[in-house]
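Forgive a beginner's question, but would it be possible to get any protein sequence you like and the tokens describing how it folds?
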Amino acid sequence: MPPFIYSRCMRFFSALLIGGVGVSLCLSSFAQTSDSGTQAAQQQTGQSSAGAAEQAPGAPLKLENLPPDPHTPTPEELAARQAEQQRAQIVRVAAAQANWGPKTSAPGMALAMKEMARTKTASGTQITYRLMGTGFPAGAKLTLLRWPLNQNVTPVMDGIVLDASGMAVCAAPPANAGTEAPAATAPSAIACAKTMQVNAPVEVTTTAAKGEAVRVALAGADKKSGAAASAVPFPLAAENKGCKLQVLLGSKDAELVLIEGDGLKQGEAFTMGSETFGVKGTLVAKPDAQGHLVTALTPYMQGHDSGDTVIFYQSDTCTPTVSFHWGNGSYKAE
């Protein structure tokens, strides 16, 4: 699982995207454009050099024959280049979050999060989950991964197996663990046997803000087997006539959000957009055959440190609308 690093200039994205226009979750166009442009430039340079050599073999080098100095990018060109790099980065993060779950799981493998308890604390509601897996190789040692907001995917605990019911539990350490060198573990992951009893269920306890997804995964040591899952303990969603819109935080303070739609009709004419401080923008996304769509949005607007954004979907079938608050200090655990 490659790391995804959050930029510290998220507000810059909204200015680049003209006040919060929806970003495409397609990654190929950026790489293709960059690669093809570089290759074309290299080919053109090579051809020009070869042509010059053929036209003037052995010609004495004179000052007027020297090629011009390499072009120094203007501030505007540097800003445009930085904008493209940051846009590509935010698209990578949004796409990875949108695909987290069955789409990133190995074929035939699945993971589910079973909520066990909720406890009110001074720092917010503590939610406890247990993990249930299917399709994993029998006896495979697994590593628990977490993906909190504004952080990279992080290995948390290893030495995990699935019991006969499919529940993730702590495996017994090898009998010769004290006499042989320890088996390689995931970087920064802690062996579960150091903090848990053998065969005790693995539990994930966390707090969450409204609209925040709790993302976890179990990965095999071979890096080929594994499954991911997520749960949203406090949904930020609205329904109308069977259609649903949901906002998921892509970063704290809602600097980036995902907008998901479900129960929609593929091929039906519709309008989907956002409105912030009276400024409307179009969100580009289409429902698939299952009636699901997803897009991303950076709601920040120049001159505002916080605000509220309304997401709307309008068709002949339904008109769901959902709103969310964003900005400095808006992230709060429920």
